[in-house]
Amino acid sequence: MSTLKGIAASAGIAIGRVYIYRPDDVILDLESHDSVSVEEKLKAISLATESVHHQVKALHAHMEEQGKSKEAEIFSAYEMFLDDPTLQEAMERYVREGYSAAAAVHRAYEDSVQLMDNLADAYFRERAKDIRDVGDRVVRALLGMPKADLRALPYPAIVVARDLAPADTASVDRENVLGFVTEQGSTTSHTAILAQALGLPAVVGLGTALADVDEHARLGVDGAAGTVVLDPTPEERATLEEGARALAAEQELLTQYKDKEAVLGNGKRIEVSADIGGPGDVATALRFGADGVGLYRTEFLFLDRDSPPTEEEQVEAYRSVLTAFGSRPVIIRTLDIGGDKQIPYLHLPAEANPFLGVRATRLGLRRPTLFKTQLRAILRASTAGTTRIMYPMIAVAEEIEQANLLLQSVRKELDAEDIPYDHDLEVGVMVEIPSAALDAERLADRVDFFSIGTNDLTQYTFAADRTNRDLNYLYQPLHPAVLFLIRMTIEAAHSHGKWAGICGELAGAPQAIPVLIAMGIDQLSMSSAKIPRAKQIILSL
Amino acid sequence: MTARTLTVHNKTGLHARPATLFVQTAARFKSKIEVTREGRTVDTKNILGVLSLGAGKNSVIEVEAEGADESAALDALETLLTTGIGQEE
Fold first, then answer.
1. What are the extents of the domains in chain B?
2. What's the structural domain count of chain A?
3. Residues A404, A430: one domain?
4. pLDDT above 90 covers what percent of chain A?
5. Cβ contacts (< 8 Å) between B32 and chain A: which residues?
6. Is B15–A123 a contact, with Cβ atoms under 8 angstroms apart?
7. Among A253, A288, A317, where does a domain finish?
8. pLDDT given for residue B66 in this prediction
9. Buried-most residue among A187, A246, A280, B13 (CB within 10 A)?
10. Which CATH number does the domain housing residue A435 bear?
11. Which entry of A60, A106, A190, A496 is annotated as an active-site residue?
C-alpha cells in the first residue's frame, strides 16, 4: 500500500503482523506532594532501587548466558546509575521539598537526562535513554507496576515501538520476533546494535508514520534498504519474498563456501582475497572467508586530515590488519593518490591531467620523506602477520629500482636501530599501465609478484576516462586488447618463477573468472561480498 | 595533590562502557579524584557526572587526585585512557 522510509539499522527482510510494544507509560503527577515523612520516602526509594538492582543483575546474567557479554556490559552502567551519588542527592532534595517519592525519583532522573540530552555527541545522547529507562524502572518498582518486556509474544510479529532500551531487548522471544520498527533511534541506537546481534531486520527513526497502525496490520520490512511497507500488496509481497530468497541464497553460499579453499582440478590453489580500505573492513573480509588481503588501500589514512599520519599511527593501522589475518597474506599498497584529491598538507600543484600526472609511486619518489615513513611503518608492522608490499602505478623498471632503494635504506635504518621486521616479505608492483604489461618480462626480474589493476589498465589502454559517461563504450575490461596485456603479464611472471594476481572489478566478475583462471592467474582480489560466489565458480571449473 | 592532562583515545569517547570502567578504576583508590573538562569539574565516583562531561574522542581532560595513592590512581587512569579502554572493536 504505502512505503515508508526510515533509517536502515539492521539488514534482513521480514513480512508479518504488527505487535505494538508500548510499555505502559507511567502516568505520574510530577507536582504531587504528600505528607509522608522524609525518612519513609527515602526508605521506599532505597528499597525500590534495591529491587531494580536485582532486576538489572538478572538481565545482565541472562545476556551473559546467551553469550552476549558485549551487550550485557551496558547493565554495569545501569548499576552505577542506581548507585550514583548525584542522583541520590537530587532525590533527597526533592523529597525534602515535599515531593512524593515517585515524583522525586522521576525529577532527579530527568535532570540527568536533560544534562545528557544537551550534549552534542550522538553517543552521549543515546545514554540519556538508558538513564531514563533506569529511572522508569525505579518509579515502577515504587508504584508496584511491572515493566513490560518482549520475552513472550502472542504470535510471530514485527515489533513496532517508540524506541527500545537495551533492557527491552535483553530477553527477546527469538521464536516470534521477526524484526523491529521504531519511531526514534539512529544507526547507533540499541535497537540497531541488538537487532544486528540477533540477525533480525530493523528500521529505525520512522517518526510518527506508524502511530495509527494497529495489530491487524501487516508490515514488510527491508532492513538493508531502511524501508517499511504498510499492508503490502501481493506484488510488493512477492518482491520482498524474492529479496528474502536472494538473501537466504547468499547466506547459503556463504556458509557453504566461506571456509573452502578454491582449488582447481589440477590441484592448483587460487588465493581468493579481499580488497579493504582499512582495519574497519577486516571483520567483513574475514566473515566472507577471505584467504587474505589482495589490496589494502592505505590512502584512506591520508585523506580528510590536516597533517600526514605519523609513523606510529600507520604502524597501528597496518599491525591491526596483519594481526587479524595472521598467516594469511596481506598486500599493503603504498600511497596511491594524486592531484585529483584535495590533500592540503601535501600542497599538490594543480595539474591539467591528474590521472596522467604525479600520482601514486611517482609522487612517493618525489616525496621521499612521506614514502619512507610509510615503508618504515609497513616494515615495523610486518612482524605481526604475513606482509607483502605493493607499489602502485609503475610505468617503467627504473621506478621499481628507485622505490626499492628507498626500501633498502629503510631496512638499514631499522637494522641499525635493532628494530625487528620480516626480512623475507614479498615486494610486488601493480600492473595498471600498458607499458608495464608490455615490458613485464623485464619488470618481473625486479619483483616477487604482479597484481594487475584492471580498472586503471582498462582506462589507460583505451585512453578513456572511466567516469566519463559518454565514453562508457570504451570501458571494456574483457576486450581482447586488455586480455592480451593481462596474459602477457601472467606469462612474464610465471616464466620468472613469480606469481600474478588481479585486483579490480574484473577479479570478482562471474563471467571473467573462468577466463582469468584459464590464463593462469594465481590470485584474485575483490570486494568481500563477492568472495563466496567466486570460490563457488572456481570450484566448479 | 597531583594533576595530569590526558587525552581520551577511545573511538566513542568516555561514553557508557568506557565511563563505567573509568569510574570503577577510580573507585579502587582511596584518593579523592576529580575530572575537569572545559571548565566543568566532577567527582570520578559519579558516573552521571563523568558522562555529562560529554568527553568524546580526542577531548582533553584534566584529572586531579588527592590522597595517599594519588599517583598510582593517575597512572591507572592514564593507562586506561591511552590504551583505548572498552572499545567496541
1. 2-83
2. 3
3. yes
4. 60
5. none
6. yes
7. A253
8. 93
9. B13
10. 3.20.20.60
11. A190
- The answer, for A80 touching chain B at a CB cutoff of 8 Å, is yes
List CB contacts of A255: < 8 A, sequence separation 6 or more. Answer: none
* Chain A residue whose CA is closest to B11: A123
> Is residue A297 located within the same domain as residue A334?
yes
CB atoms within 10 A of CB A32: 13
According to the annotation, is A333 in a ligand binding site? yes
Nearest to A127 among B15, B23, B88 (CB): B15
Q: What ipTM describes this predicted complex?
A: 0.72
Gap between the terminal Cα atoms of chain A: 46
At position A69, the amino acid (one-letter code) is S
Domain-located, residue A90: yes
Q: Per residue in B30-49, pLDDT tens?
A: 999 999 998 889 988 888 88
Amino acid at A516: L
CA atoms of A406 and A8, how far apart (whole Å)? 47
Task: Mark A146-167 as b/e (b = at least 16 C-beta within 10 Å).
Answer: ebebbeebeeebbbbbbbbbbb
User: Among A60-69, A284-293, A348-357, A421-430, whose mean pLDDT is lowest?
Assistant: A60-69
How many C-alpha atoms does A222 have within 13 Å on its Cβ side?
22
The reply to whether A284 and A413 lie within a common domain is yes
Q: Which CATH number characterizes residue A126's domain?
A: 1.10.274.10
The CATH architecture to which B2-83 belongs is: 2-Layer Sandwich (3.30)
Q: What pLDDT does A1 receive? A: 59
> Would you state the pLDDT for residue B88?
41
Within-domain flag for A398: yes
In SS3 terms, chain B reads as CEEEEEECCCCCCCCHHHHHHHHHHHHCCCCEEEEEECCEEEECCCHHHHHHCCCCCCCEEEEEEECCCHHHHHHHHHHHHHCCCCCCC
A236 in B contact zone (CB under 8 Å): no
- Say if A30 falls within a structural domain: no
Q: Note whether A482 and A514 are same-domain residues.
A: yes
